[in-house]
Structure formats: structure tokens, C-alpha cells
Amino acid sequence: MVWIKICGITNLADAETATAFGANALGFVFAPSKRKVEPDTARQIIKALPPEVEKIGVFVNEEVARVKEIANYCGLTGLQLHGEESPDYCSYFRNYDVIKAFRVSNYIDWQSIKPYVVNQCINKILLDTYVPQQLGGTGKTFPWEIVGEQEWEVPVIIAGGLNAGNAALAVRLGKPFGVDVASGVEKEPGKKDPVKLKAFIEKARGLEK
Ligand SMILES: O=C(O)c1ccccc1N[C@@H]1O[C@H](COP(=O)(O)O)[C@@H](O)[C@H]1O
């Protein structure tokens, strides 16, 4: 069954709704974003969530000490490093599930990803759509078939522009370990739409009636 992360959680109601519909992981953005959440808020939400739900902090080129401080304070279980973090940087977080994001246009630059895999400093790869001057949450897709054409040595997550209308195709073409969505299940930035959330999870998992 495909692993699903719902990103850009800013309030408990959305976190509980996504969890009830079967999300495996929730994402909390601590980088500059329309979905940015304060550590105090994230901590309160995370405290109320069941242990089996993964709590992933999203960071972009943040200082190592600050990432560790927020992760510890909030009770994060994983880190999504969405900037230009190096393999050495990633290896500072051995106690966390480390997801390294790489931005993709119409091909995958395996040479830039390989050092992270060879050094075993990450647990998962996330492929998000390259949009100049935007760090994430772009709402734009890339050709998912380029993921499915390759053998991966670590679990791969597809992100970028996913929604209930395209999730099933992304999973069929890309054959990923998981999918991640932020803007495609929102009413407005930082507020999720329960109807879109439910439909996304059902479509990604092929469970729709
Ligand atoms: O969601 C954000 O605002 C964000 C900001 C900075 C870095 C990453 C961010 N989110 C990640 O972006 C991708 C794609 O999002 P979308 O579904 O296209 O809106 C996803 O991996 C989010 O985790």
C-alpha cells in the first residue's frame, strides 16, 4: 500500500482529519512558506497525535543546531530536507528518518543523488518539481514515468502538484514507495479541505468506490 504524507499541517483539526482518513505521515513546514508553522503550535498538534503517525519537519538549508532543537522540542520523528543540504549535513541526524528532497524537471540527475545513497545518510528520497525561485509547495507536476523507469536503492516519494485527480496516475507511472501532497488538498494555504483529503488518499491507494 502506498505511503502517504500530507504536508503543510498548521492546525489540529487538519492533522486529525488526515490521520482519520489514513495518512501515514504529516508534514510541518518550518521554512519560509505560506504553510509555515511555529514550533509551539507544531508541538501542541504532535502531542495529540497517535504514535504510529510519522511527524515530519520540513526544513530548507536550516542550521543543524536549529533543526535538532525544533525536532526535539516538537517531537518530530522525521526530517524532510528540502534545500541544498549536503550528504555531510544529512548525516548529522542519525536518530531521525531523513527524507532528502531533490527537485526534478524532465529528467532525474542521478549523479547528484548518488552520494547521499552511497553514504547512507538518508532514509528516503523525495522528488519534487523544479520551479525556479520556489522551494516547495509549488502545485506543479513533473513526468512521473521517469521515476518508474529507474531501479531505486532507497524508497522514493513523488511530490509536486499531486491531487485527487492525478494521484492514481502518478502511482501507476512512477511506482513510488510513497506520495506527498501539500497544495492539492487545501481550501487555502495552511487549511486543508476534508473532501480533497479523503479523495486524495482513496485515489492514491486505489480504494475509491
Ligand atoms: O509546502 C510548502 O509550502 C513547502 C515549502 C518549502 C519547502 C517544501 C514545501 N512543501 C513540499 O513541497 C512539495 C510539493 O508541494 P505541492 O503538493 O506541490 O504543494 C511537497 O513535498 C511538500 O512537502
TrEMBL record:
Q: Which Gene3D superfamilies match?
A: Aldolase class I (3.20.20.70)
* A GO MF label: phosphoribosylanthranilate isomerase activity
UniProt keyword list: Amino-acid biosynthesis, Aromatic amino acid biosynthesis, Isomerase, Tryptophan biosynthesis
User: What pathway or pathways are given for this protein in its record?
Assistant: Amino-acid biosynthesis; L-tryptophan biosynthesis; L-tryptophan from chorismate: step 3/5
**Pfam families named in the record:** PRAI
Q: Which GO terms describe its biological process?
A: L-tryptophan biosynthetic process
Name the SUPFAM superfamilies on file. Answer: Ribulose-phoshate binding barrel (SSF51366)
Q: Which reaction does it catalyse?
A: N-(5-phospho-beta-D-ribosyl)anthranilate = 1-(2-carboxyphenylamino)-1-deoxy-D-ribulose 5-phosphate
Residue ranges of every copy of the N-(5'phosphoribosyl) anthranilate isomerase (PRAI) domain listed in the record:
4-202
Family of this protein = Belongs to the TrpF family.
- The name this protein carries in UniProt is N-(5'-phosphoribosyl)anthranilate isomerase
State the taxonomy lineage.
Bacteria, Bacillati, Bacillota, Clostridia, Eubacteriales
Please state the gene responsible for encoding this protein.
trpF
